[in-house]
Amino acid sequence: MTRVPSSLITGIGGQDGSYLAELLLVQGHEVWGIVRRPGAEYEHLAPLDGSIAIVAADLLDQASVAAAIRTSGAREIYNLASPSFVPRSWDEPVRTATHAAVGVTSLLEAVRGVDPAIRV
Fold it and tell me: CA 50 from chain center: how many Å?
């Protein structure tokens, strides 16, 4: 019996994340997405309602990312998380850099702690 690949996308609520989710679904993947605000409306995800699973996590919180990875059973992770309002990134460069650098480090450390064989 072939196992359906499980993929986890950070930043799934954005345009690129939703397009990637659509592609992975067509390819037969079980798709999970990480969002920061689970109750928020993500307009790009509306067409995917019921086709994907959402889990809340903060990329700056390694434990929450590890929990999301365990919950999803992901064998591959796509990191598309970024500041949601680009002009603000110019006004808050330290915050932007923290999410870009520390967020990726947190994600990689979570993967290493859960299962280093997971592809990122």
Answer: 17
Phi-psi region of 118 (alpha: psi -120 to 50; beta: other; left: phi over 0): beta
| Chain centre to alpha carbon of residue 43 | 16
Tokens of 70: 């365990």
- Distance (Å, whole) CA 8 – CA 68: 9
pLDDT digits (tens, 9 = 90+) for 26-59: 999 999 999 987 778 888 888 998 899 999 999 9
Note the pLDDT tens digit of each residue in 55-111: 999 999 999 999 999 999 999 999 998 776 677 778 888 888 888 889 999 999 999
State the CB neighbour count (10 A cutoff) for residue 11.
21
